[in-house]
Design goal:
128 residues, globular, mainly alpha
Length: 128
Amino acid sequence: MNATGWSRGLEVTGGGTGVVSHAGLALLRQLSDRTGLTSGLSAALPSPLGGHDRGRVLSDLACAIADGARVISDFRVMGDQRELFGPVASVPTAWRALKETAAGGDRRRRRVTAGCRRSGSRTGSSQA
């Protein structure tokens, strides 16, 4: 998976044509890709063949929450701006990803936590 492929040529400016809302969300999403959070989650969570990468889905949900999402369906703001974010999972897919993660119990939780910690160690941040 090329997690950062969606952002090639991305430029954020304060004005012009083709302006989109939530442009800061694009930078947050790129940060999660470049720090390894998305790939760490992808490695920890199996994705269905031909389906949305579960690491990408959970990373997108985290970015949406940081952007002010209050309910799962709020992350659709990303899907509604395909020209900026590329393909984004549907709300039902996001729910499936969350259910699959929760169904994995403590073992899956430990794998997800380890994936997140690996991404933090790449950036030099310390995580408890």
